[in-house]
Write a structure and sequence with these properties.
A seven-stranded mixed β-sheet has the order 12-13-15-17-18-21-22, with no helix packed on it. A hairpin with a 2-residue loop joins strand 19 and strand 20. The longest helix has 22 residues. The protein has two domains: about 120 residues, Immunoglobulin-like; about 100 residues, Sandwich (Immunoglobulin-like). With about 290 residues, the chain is mostly beta strands.
């Protein structure tokens, strides 16, 4: 075998390895959300959840512009580690089902609806995701409660299938403004179909939610949302042109909007009336 042949084999091998490496690094799903500040706690925390090809799950929790010190990471009520925030107010922790250097094993259940709490020095609840009652008890604000602040901040994140913007105005009593968009999960009934849910909470505490679907056959699609009253049908998306449609609910509905009488962050199922098949779900298709 000539040296030129050996070189060709080596190059081909590197190309194959390179293409496989790129495939394993591809993100197939990403959800990025801000945690709620509890009791006017300074700074910001966010949680990123990714699923990559090969079914690798990855969770990263970041804190920024916060008081330095240890923050206990409580996931579904269980202590899963500590974020050490440095003198610059920065810190993070990452979990993975295929952990690399500096990452922790993700050996516990986790999805987009999993509760996350960050406790400053193990005693004071600083940030929370989904644990509204605990955050309220700490004096914080949720998407449906009010708070009084003395500063003006605006933050925005946009990654993959989700984006969130949060704004708080100084002076007076108001809600924490939230603009959160997530990609609905395609449940396999219609290949290539896409959907989103956008929830907004305004500074005057008015809320609205919009469900939008695309690349679907014309027809009617029932929207089910789970709340304390059960998993009920909340409305119908009518797709009549361009293979797309939407429906919007609002606390103070305008023309072509419907009253918002349920939790806009509740689990979603969108069903095609013609077949009874579930087309979309969020946070999953269960």
């Amino acid at each position: 075998m000539t040296s030129k042949s050996v070189l060709k084999i080596l190059v081909l091998g590197l190309l194959v390895l390179g293409s496989n490496w790129l495939a394993t690094a591809k993100t197939t799903f990403e959800d990025d959300v801000l945690l709620i500040n509890c009791g006017g706690f300074p700074g910001q925390a966010k949680r990123r959840f990714r699923i990559e090809t090969g079914n690798v799950h990855d969770v990263r929790i970041e804190i920024s512009n916060a008081p330095s010190g240890p923050y206990s990471v409580i996931i579904q009520g269980v202590d899963r580690g500590v974020i050490s925030v440095d003198s610059l107010g920065q810190g993070e922790i990452e979990y993975s089902t295929n952990p690399q250097a500096g990452e922790h094993p993700l050996n516990f259940p986790f999805d987009v609806g999993t509760e996350v709490d960050l406790s400053f020095q193990g005693t004071r609840l600083a940030y929370s995701l989904s644990n509204d009652s605990a955050c309220q008890n700490a004096g914080g604000s949720t998407s449906s409660s009010t708070s009084t602040t003395t500063s003006s901040t605006s933050t925005s994140t946009s990654l993959g299938g989700s984006s969130t913007t949060s704004t708080t105005l100084g002076g007076g009593s108001s809600c924490q403004a939230i603009d959160n968009t997530v990609s609905l999960v395609n449940c396999g009934a219609i290949r290539g179909a896409t959907g989103t849910r956008r929830v907004r909470v305004h500074l005057d505490c008015d809320r609205d939610v919009r469900y939008q679907i695309k690349k679907v056959p014309n027809g009617n699609y029932s929207v089910f949302v789970t709340d304390t009253d059960g998993n009920l049908k909340r409305g119908t998306i009518k797709v009549v042109s361009k293979n797309q449609g939407e429906i919007e609910f609002d606390d103070t509905p305008a023309v072509n909007e419907f009253p918002l009488t349920f939790d806009p962050f509740g689990p979603v199922s969108i069903v095609r009336d013609a077949t009874g098949a579930r087309v979309f779900g969020y946070p999953n298709c269960q």
